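re: that complex we talked abt at group meeting.

here r the seqs, copy pasted straight from the sheet so there may be weird spacing, ignore it
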Amino acid sequence: MSLQDRLTELRDQGLADIKSADVLNKVNQIKVDLLGKKGPITEVLRGMRDLTPEERPKVGAYANEIRDHLQNAIDHRRSELEEAAVNAQLAAEKLDVTLPGRTVPQGQPHVITQIITELEDLFIGMGYEIEDGDEVEEDYYNFERLNLPKDHPARDMQDTFYITKEVLLRTQTSADQPRALESHDFSKGPLKVLTPGRVYRRDTDDATHSHQFHQIEGLVVDKHITMADLKGTLTLVANTLFGDQFDVRLRPSYFPFTEPSVEADVTCFNCNGKGCAVCKQTGWIEVLGAGMVHPRVLEMSGIDPEVYGGFAFGLGPDRFAMLKYGVDDIRNFYLNDVRFLSQFYKKG
Amino acid sequence: MKISYAWLRDYLQLDIPADELAEKIERTAVEVDGVIRPSEGLKKVVVGHVLECVEHPDSDHLHICQVDVGEEEPIQIVCGAPNVAAGEMVIVALPNSWIGGHTKIKRSKMRGVVSNGMLCALDELGFDEKLVPKEVADGIFILPADATPGEPVFSYLGMDDEIIDMSVTPNRGDMLSMNGTAHELAAIYDQTPKMPTVALTEDANDLADDALTVTVEADEHDVPTYKMRLIKNVTIKPSPLWLQIRIWNAGMRPINNVVDATNYILMQYGQPLHAFDYDKLSAGHVNVRLAKAGEKLTTLDDEERDLLPTDLVICSDDQPICLAGTMGGLATEVTNETTTIALESAVFDAVRVRKTAHNHGLHSEASMRYERGIDHSATQTALDAAAAMIAELGDGTVATGTVAGREETIAPVVVDITLSRINHVLGTDLTMDTVADIFRRLDFPTTINEDTLTVTIPARRWDIHIPADLIEEVARLYGYDNLPSTLPTGQPTIGKLNETQQLIRDTRKLMESAGLTQAISYSLTTPAKAQAFELHASEVTKLDFPMSSERSALRLNLISGLLDDLAYNNARKEQDVALYETGRVFFSQPEQVRPHEVEHLAGAITGSMVPAEWGIAAQPIDFYQIKGIVAGYLKSLALADPITYVASADHPEMHPGRTADIYVGDRLVGFVGQVHPNTTKAYKIRETYVFELDLAALIALPKERQQYQPISKFPSITRDVAMLINDDITNAQVVDLITDKGGAHLRSVKLFDVYNGKHVPAGKKSLAYTLTYQDQNATLVDDDVTAAFDKVLKALTTEFDAEIR
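got the structure back, here u go
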């Protein structure tokens, strides 16, 4: 048999072996056996010294061709087997992706905090500062400085928890107004503050009353603040909380520390103003009280009402939350039932 | 204040629907609670004429009546009322009619006799029992003889009226009268109201002065005006039906002609009046003064009251007979035997009346009006009108003259305001004509001089005395709807949270990302709970008059409230609860007027933060998990001073072996641990872990300056050490020693195992740490690390008697 024939035979046999190799190890062994230093092709090449000088390059070239051919076949087979192995592994690792993911513990803000935060951000954007105010106040600041002297009939509107004759739990965040007014330096610009916080009334807790609830007070005082500015601001508040498809109406009201005083109603979002149980058939929902700061309040804080004026408004996040989410019992906000708290999963 | 639409039409020409009128009032003047239609829901209730009335054969109280209801044949109705009789005009509920309380009347049989409907009393038509005249309370109501059988009954009873129920704010006391409301609506609708005139005839032969003397000892501030008239030869009897209708539609009970007349004038003018039985006054004399301590008065409601030195009283023979402006006395009450009336019309100080009403728990139509102020110019007119009415209804005569103990002169209030000021405050561009027209509609006499309006305020609008009040009048009558809507202009301001506010917000977010949900608990609690879990000792701040002991003291910690929340959840089968709260606690300060309010942060966790899921068991909360939450939070604050946890058995409500006080430097800022089993038992909650931190202190403490540290380019080398060590040596001690002896290149010490189970001798535990060495500037040489590590091992052996494994 000529060397060429021997090489052809080795090639055909090798290709057949490679093709039939079903695991990577076998492919590797074939490579060692066939193309290694002690393999048959090397042996054939060694027998070339017996050839004529004319035949030698031909046989040499042919041997290299076969070696490359086999090498390619081995590489190809190897990658085929590797891919099959990966595919087999992936198939074996298949998961039911519809099984629930692992829970990462995640808490959430209280719904009242969400409303307060939303309004804080709205007013910060309009240049307001946030004041915290104390929850235990003097009668003097909570009432007298707000034009509510002792024995004023409007005090009946707010039953009060007293600690001593002169110290009480604030009944309204308006209690912070006189302190904000007297500490502000008007030479540095207008006063624009928002005071959110807890307030207390001597009420028996039931579905619509709570001895503890929240208020947000807004106060703006400058040289030229108008009732139109108040209307625009209140409209913005209502639109932010309830959406801008609703109308806002102002109607006369009475607070001793504002004059004129108004209450603001928004179109009932439940019935779109047609009249329903939520709005007691009126089509309107009362959402806040407001007015132009009473000249006496400015005077008592040492501010000249001829030069400065402003507006104040007060609203109740508890009431807003009840209206917005249809919460039918105010006590829910303070009992902290996780089944209640977890319903408001928006981040504050 | 309940305003009858029918009564209003005496003054004004109004033909708009009542709902529209109510909306107008609400948008322009005062809140309206609703429009009441007394006949609403009632059907087929008609006038009947009792033609025949015989006793029921099988009953001792039922009657069988044949009643003409305007149909061809009379109908038969069985009636149990004692006052039913032939010839009467009565209220008939026909078969299939609807009466009060959504009740349907059907044809029925009563003890075998067919009854085609029902004869009705007023309360059966939906009248509030408190409004039904007492003399008709026990039987059916008898209609006037000229009523037409078969006609609906409503117009005969004023039930076809519409009643606007106004909720009058304290400043608008003027609207607590028909006259005041009529003036208001006249301004709104630009009409001239037809005000009632008083036609009083005095008996020229009889001078009031001869029989009556009035003195006012109280000062002018307390009693600016006190007047009386005498009405003689009065017959006390029920009022005519028209008056009863006005009285009950105003929400009051008809009593008799004298009382009803005073109430009618009260409603009309807003002037409280009081009728005394003249013959029960001593020597025809009354005196007004402050009560003296120890004096007593039995009021009309038959209550004996101990008078206070702040109470204004009317006296006769120096004995109190009436609480001024609040309630009359029983001894001088008008009874059926009364013939001579001494009628009072006065002005009492608002604060005096308010205190008296408050102190005696007596709030009446009169006191409500005095508290809000009354029209000082109407005392005489109202007195004259009432005297004339009583004389007419009681067939009596009015003695000539008013006996005045005191009479004030009323100075008109004049307010100047400029047009530019009005526009400046309202943000409007109103013309002088528009503003002047509003004052004309209000009937406020006004003169204009260039930009200035000089406005004279009638006494009936005592709420107006400064320019801001006039601006309100202009704004509401111009219409708030017509105001422009703008935002404040002027010098811009920077709005942002201050550092404290920002840090509290960040705190909330961190707590929430750690898995805790925000709670808002009650600040008021029991004194015991207020003082539990205390971080710093303090007196508790207590309410003066709490409503209950449960809510009587201000909290000094947040944990108590959170445990209440946990108890609420546990009781409802919610076992996995992780809550946090930020809020104020209140430290009493003996020298200070008010307690010191300090922001705290607390957390409480029970059950598992991650509940059991498929393939994973629940991980019940333990000390190290909650400590991890606290440590992670404290790390985020970048406090400059080191944080240490020191075992503490000093908190009575906490587990003595599982609680750590938390220090920043040497400042105590809080604690973390397991709640004492006795405490959880008392709260009826399961095993619970808590922490409480002085958030205000953490906010105020110095913070680390954030600075970039270059990351070493050179590799680190680690060494592990495991040791057997006495149980009472803490991790902190070991770490401190390793750190102390670790050498210049020791970067970190990390605990990776704690074991005290099998193969560990009693009293010992096995601890294992990884020590990491790294040089910032060079590659560490293995031998150097080994030398440093050996030093540590040696120190552990000698200092703690550790057995290195």
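couple things i noticed - The CA atoms of residues 200 and 212 of chain A lie 5 Å apart. Chain A has two domains: 3-92, 112-341.
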